[in-house]
Amino acid sequence: MKMGLFRRVFLLVLLVGGSVAFGGGRPHILFAIADDMGHAGAYGVPWVRTPHFDELAARGVLFANAYTPNAKCAPSRSCILSGRNSWQLEEAANHQPAYPAKFKGWVEALKDSGYFVGYTGKGWGPGTLPAERAQITGKLYGNAKLAKKPASGMNPNDYFGNFKEFMSDRPEGEPFCFWYGCKEPHRGYEFKSGQDKGGYELSDIDAVPGYWPDIEDVRHDMLDYAMEVEHFDDHLGKMVAFLEEKGLLENTIVVATSDNGPPFPRMKGHPFEQSCHLPLAIMWEKGIAQPGRVSESLVSFIDFAATFLEAGAIEWGDSGMQAVQGISLFDIFAGEDIGRVLPDRRRIYLGRERNDINIRPGGGSGLGYPVRAMRKGNLLYLHNFEPDRWPCGTPESTYRDTDDSPTKRAALASGEDSRFWQFCFGFRPGEELYDVRKDPDCVNNLAGNPEYEASMARMKKELFAELRAQRDPRVLGNGDVFDNYVDGKAANRK
């Protein structure tokens, strides 16, 4: 991508400053990623408390349109680390895969270039890493434990305590990269903990998505999730405060985000708006022009790899990584998109292959539910390659592609004739089109509407042309390869 004049001048100021701008070196990186978080207070959500995420946004950039290419933990994290879309990652397009050794990640590239790297909580996964990638997110720091968990369903990891241990091990003057992988708000939750222990009220929720019954159990489930989001935010705030106290925050790129949407029906695992559209705030006091702004540009999580390589002054050809598909976010850091959406950031691509294993008979570890999608303007187009398959797993699998929860049970109990059951578990047509600004729940399918026929045809043509250019097996006639991969444990047994 060609570098704009504003960005060239902006970077020149940083680099000429040398010891002033970068403290004699390169910026530090704190990458904070929650597990299954889709909400933050900075986006106007009244029932989720994220004061520290919101402060990052106020002191940096709040991204209004950030998307993961694949809304399931392992493939999303594979995209983040490799800088490639999931259909470019072989087995790693699936959930619980055997991660291919050829795909090096940016944390490893930073380590090779002199960064001190480590992580706590959840790094890449679930799945099986080869020996070459065993520390794909660095050295694990996990000794510190909480004296008491806020709720019984939470992980006992003291994320902040482990971050402090990492920082005490850091050689003085060495740039660091720390992956804070919070295991919340992944299920399971302690039922009613949000109300009984978190101080939330059912009336805090301004709206229940249109594809769930609006009943007390569902609202409690949402509040229990909100309490675990707050837990992620609390440890993030402690880490940022620690860096500020030590005089390191000014030249630290702090990223706060999640891997995929919330663990509720029709969210996590699907290429819908509320599955892939995620919170993202980035603060870098030394490197972000005009902090406190909102970027409307569409960005993909494959952009992180290119961003951190640029931050580390690492040429892609020297990184040892496979070709990175994403685009560095330095254009947004420099403010090139102020007042406009950049030409290279007007569309993003999403997809899905196999999520949970053995929930549809056939293939290597069960068949997947292949989808490719594109968001452009207000429209989200989805192409379902196998509409005769159950989207969330067969009835015999108890629709296991959707995590068990009070909300799932409420949707199931509503009966197969209800709109809740149909939206959450029913078959889907070959094509779907949604206006996500008017219909963020994605319940009003515009495919077949004559008013949108031309727009949908253009989006489909553009999507498939891009997928062919990216050598996606699913559009090149070899899509069965994704179904025939076995899960990571089975691969290791062979």
Task: Describe the fold and architecture.
With 494 residues, the chain is an alpha/beta fold. The protein has two domains: 27-345, Alkaline Phosphatase, subunit A (3-Layer(aba) Sandwich), CATH 3.40.720.10; 348-493, no CATH class. 31% of the residues lie in helices and 14% in strands. It contains 17 helices and 13 strands. Strands 1, 2, 3, 4, 5, 6, 7, 8 and 9 form a nine-stranded mixed β-sheet that branches. Helix 6 runs parallel beside helix 8 and helix 13 (406-413) packs across helix 14 (419-425). The longest helix is centred in the middle third of the chain and has 30 residues, at 216-245. It is globular.
Number of distinct helices: 17
Could you say how many structural domains there are in total? Answer: 2
Q: Assign the structural class, choosing from mainly alpha, mainly beta, alpha/beta, alpha+beta, or little secondary structure.
A: alpha/beta
What is the overall silhouette?
A: globular
- As for the CATH topology of the largest domain, it is Alkaline Phosphatase, subunit A
What is the helix content?
25-40%
CATH class of the largest domain: Alpha Beta
Compute the separation of the termini in Å. 43 Å
What oligomeric state do the depicted chains represent?
Answer: single chain
Instruction: From the alpha carbons, calculate the radius of gyration and give it in angstroms.
Output: 22 Å
Mean pLDDT: 95
Question: Biggest sheet: strands, sense, closure?
Answer: 9 strands, mixed
**What are the secondary-structure elements, in order, as H or E?**
HHEHEHHEEHEHHEHEEEHHHEEEHHEHHH
Strand percentage? 5-15%
CATH superfamily of the largest domain: Alkaline Phosphatase, subunit A
Which blocks of ≥5 consecutive residues have pLDDT under 50? 15-24
In the CATH classification, which architecture of the largest domain applies?
Answer: 3-Layer(aba) Sandwich
